[in-house]
Amino acid sequence: MASRRKILLKIILLGDPNVGKTSLMNRYLSQKFSNQYKATIGVDFLTKEVMIDDRVITLQVWDTAGQERYQSLGTAFYRGADCCLMVFDVTDANSLKNLETWRDIFLVQANPPDADSFPFVIVGNKIDLENRVISTRNAEKWCQEHNNIPYFETSAKEGVNVQLAFETIAQKAIAQINESDVPDFASLSLEPEPKRSSRKRKRCSC
User: Fold this and answer.
1) Angle ∠(191,193,199) on CA atoms, nearest 5
2) What is the spatial distance between Cα 183 and Cα 186, in angstroms, rounded to a whole number?
3) Residue boundaries of the structural domains of the chain
4) Each residue of 130-153: pLDDT tens digit?
5) Which residues contact 68 (CB under 8 A, 6 or more apart)?
6) Rounded to the nearest 10 degrees, what angle do helices 162-181 and 21-30 cross at?
7) Rounded to 5°, angle at Cα 144 from 139 and 146
8) 95: phi then psi, degrees, rounded to nearest 5
9) Which residues pair with 102 in a beta bridge?
């Protein structure tokens, strides 16, 4: 029974350096924010148990470094991911443009069974800053052009929409797991099995 199993979800955070991936992870998992975060080296992850749809779900959130020299770690760390949360900085126009590259890298290295239906969520972070250059309309347009990916605007500093973004990506991943648990009734034979004879065979006396 899918509803009775313990579910572990592996969530990957992707995006350019300094878009706030670590801040978002720490805000969601520990309700903390700091301006003194050091750049992530390689990969870091934290876990948290949450209740979703009356089930206890263990979220394993992987925070990857944005530097290109660490992208080679992807094959090992992205494989087995259940969903991906891609982050850009609303004050940095290039960070939105680069999401397409991050998405392509992820799909190649994670190699999900169905790339078109794989759960992604886009997060536009740092909406608390005044020097915003990417409008909500342009960000939503980008998401619509890329298979209607859900979009959230967040502030890791103030905690705006952070929980909602993570819960949404988790729910999308659970939905994918539930679909994979549904038996393929089309492949089941509806023909009755032939009845076996109740008469015992006589052994040959030769």
Assistant:
1) 150
2) 9
3) 2-183
4) 999 999 999 999 999 999 999 999
5) none
6) 80
7) 100
8) -65, -30
9) none
Record the tokens describing residue 169, joined without a space.
């990506």
Residue with tokens 């390689």: 42
pLDDT tens digit string along 31-76?
877 675 555 444 567 899 988 878 889 999 998 765 555 555 557 7
Q: Report how far apart the first and last C-alpha atoms of the chain are (Å, whole number).
A: 54
Residue 10 half-sphere exposure toward CB, CA atoms < 13 A: 11
The pair of structure tokens assigned to 120 is: 């992604």
Quickly list H helices, the chain: 21-30, 74-78, 93-97, 99-110, 136-145, 162-181
pTM of the model: 0.79
* Residues facing residue 160 across a β-bridge: 155
* Cα dihedral: 173, 164, 134, 129 (round 10): -140
Where b means 16+ CB within 10 Å and e means fewer, 181-205 reads eeeeeeeeeeeeeeeeeeeeeeeee
Distance of CA 173 to the CA centre of its chain: 6
Does the structural domain 2-183 have CATH classification 3.40.50.300?
yes
